[in-house]
Amino acid sequence: MKVLVLNCGSSSLKYQLINMNTEEVLAKGVAERIGIEDAFVKHEAIGKDKVIIEENMGTHKSAIRIVLDCLVHPQHGAIKEMNEIAAVGHRVVHGGEKFAQSVIINDEVKKTLEECSELAPLHNPPNLMGIYACEEILPNVPMVGVFDTAFHQTMPKSSYLYALPYELYDKYKIRRYGFHGTSHKYVAMKAAEVLGKPIEELKMVTCHLGNGASVAAVDGGKSVDTSMGFTPLEGLVMGTRCGDIDPAIVTFIMEKEHISSSDVNNIMNKKSGVLGISGVSNDFRDIEGAAASGNERAQLALDVYYKRVKKYIGAYAAEMGGLDAVIFTAGLGENSPETREEVCNNLDFLGIKIDAGKNKVRGKETIVSTEDSKVKVLLIPTNEELMIARETKELLK
After folding, report:
1. I want to staple 124 with a disulfide (CB 3.0 to 4.6 A). Which of 104, 117, 151, 319 is the partner?
2. How many C-beta atoms lie closer than 10 Å to residue 396's C-beta?
3. Binding positions for Mg(2+) (predicted)?
């Protein structure tokens, strides 16, 4: 069974074709600058040379056509015929309260996703574009929606409800939803495998640390709390997002700077985070380099970042009444030994002891804590595409 996994952004489309009999990636790539001049597709079939196809793509539909042409191309393709694609798994950012698990896409599901677009106006519309395009190009191929928010639907009401007038929740469903759910689920399941223990017996904190970042409390395999909220802005300090702040700051800035709500929203989402503090970059490699050269604001940005992650780990250990493992994943979590070390520093009282030697590793599935560490610290590379393909296969059984 071959599953095509699609992740549609506003002007991009990432894809992987996976053979689910072996879970081997057959091909992968990305279409960039959809609807913009100088568009191109980077494509790689495993075992063959990478190719770049420079071709304008006015819509997601035209991008998907080019991707499918790449997949069946005689020289750089991965399959002989289109009918080898048994299913398409779509990453969908927001499923609201309607979807606590992945679903086979039908008219009712699409209608609900349209309604959820109000909650994720930047993400759900392009996700839907990909779904509609696949319906036209691959009309007889079943499709599955896998939601970033679904894993967190197991949170109790005491974790997801904000202390606002309850009627605002009733009317507008203002609540914590959480994101990166597919990644948190994958690494939690993988960590249980590595530790050789049933996931139902484990209390874990999963740290998805990248330009966008979130932490989740996973108790017995279920998400019971997470740092991102109504939008991906809440929680950790991120590349350009501010994370947790006093909400009164919003109106204060608006009044002092004489700007609109959209202006202040732009500041909090695109000009804040480690970029805002450091003034250097939203790329942690640049910030680490600047800090090493004596840039005090760059070092301050890193210190603020580490402290916020540490704070959430401690809070979730308290909330779950214990902790068995901390998992680091995503771009920074997988590739920055310094981040893992600084976050775990001074957490000995929780039973967390990181091994400096074992921790000198990037992008490799391994345990980086000491042998006598009561709480195991793991590096687990995330694989959201494989998780989406697994959910798609499972549903279509």
Report:
1. 117
2. 16
3. 7, 384
- The phi, psi pair for 27, rounded to 5°, reads -160, 155
Task: Summarize the confidence of residues 271-282 as an average pLDDT.
Answer: 96
What are the tokens at 343? 């976050």
- The Cα 228–Cα 235 span in angstroms is 5
Predicted TM-score (pTM) above 0.90:
yes
List, in order, residues 6 or more apart from 124 with CB less than 8 Å away.
Answer: 92, 93, 94, 113, 116, 117
The answer to whether residues 63 and 71 touch, using CB atoms and an 8 Å cutoff, is no
pLDDT(118) > 80: no
Q: How many CB atoms lie within 10 A of CB 248?
A: 8
335 is in an annotated binding site: yes
Is 176 one of the annotated binding-site residues?
no
Please give the CATH topology (third level) of the domain spanning 197-379.
Nucleotidyltransferase; domain 5 (3.30.420)
Catalytic (active site) residue 69: no
Domain layout of the chain by residue ranges: 2-147, 197-379
In the chain, pLDDT over 90 holds for what percent of residues?
79
Q: Report which of residues 266 and 8 the model is more confident about.
A: 266
Class of the CATH domain delimited by 2-147:
alpha beta
Asked if domains 2-147 and 197-379 share a fold, the reply is: yes
331 known member of a binding site: yes
Q: Which of 69, 107, 148, 244 is catalytic?
A: 148
